[in-house]
Amino acid sequence: MRVIGTVGLPGSGKGEAASVAREEGIPVVTMGDVIREECRDRGLDPAEHHGDVAKALREENGPDAVAERSLPLIERELDTAETVLVDGLRSMVEVERFREAFGDGFLLVSIEAPFELRVERLGERGRDASDVKTEALRARDERELSFGMGEVMEQADLTVENTDSLEAFRRTVRRILEDGPEAIEQ
Fold it and tell me: What are the two backbone dihedrals, phi and then psi, of residue 64, each rounded to the nearest 5 degrees?
């Protein structure tokens, strides 16, 4: 059993890592989906209220609320899969919750890229109009970092600098999915 958690600022490559996992037949649990679901349950548009609802969930149910809601989804996937990728950890409390649940089977991977490269990628992705506005991205980064993401990135078991080609990044992700921490040490 292996649970691989990813952390990274918007546009760093977390979504691409999740795509590689899916292509390899590895289930993906996206923590942001838990928040989007809560937005819909509250009658709110996830595109507009994602950050507010994420904050509210943590205030109402504790700082590990999103991790706690993700656990049953991860455990269900582990019933039939050897590896599960968890996309989008934000805080050390979440990391600690997953380490408590999965022990040595949990691997934390930080995916990092410089701000300007992330701006470029998000502009190309065009998923959210706020993504392409530099100041809006800075505000998103600040919000994410306020949840403790910077500390999570620093405490990662592995760090992937996603500054090379898309194919090089995808190869690195495949190696991590197959070999875990040994992938980078080779």
Answer: -100, 20
Amino acid at 93: V
Q: Which of 40, 29, 12 is nearest to 161 (CA)?
A: 12
Per-position DSSP letters for 69-94, written without gaps between them? HHHHHHHHHHTT-SEEEEE----HHH
Token digits of residue 179: 């070999």
Beta carbons of 73 and 29 less than 8 angstroms apart: yes
Q: What pLDDT score does 32 carry? A: 87
Instruction: Give 19-75 pLDDT, tens digit per residue.
Output: 999 999 999 999 988 999 999 999 999 989 988 898 899 899 998 999 999 999 999
Residue tagged 């009658």 (tokens) = 43
Q: Tokens for 10, please give them.
A: 């918007």
The neighbour count for residue 90, using CB atoms within 10 Å, is: 24
Q: What is the pTM of this model?
A: 0.87
Q: How far apart are CA 29 and CA 54, in angstroms?
A: 16
Q: How many CA atoms lie within 13 A of 124 on its CB side?
A: 8
User: Coil, strand or helix: which one is 182?
Assistant: helix
Cα–Cα distance for residue pair 110/115, rounded to 1 Å: 15
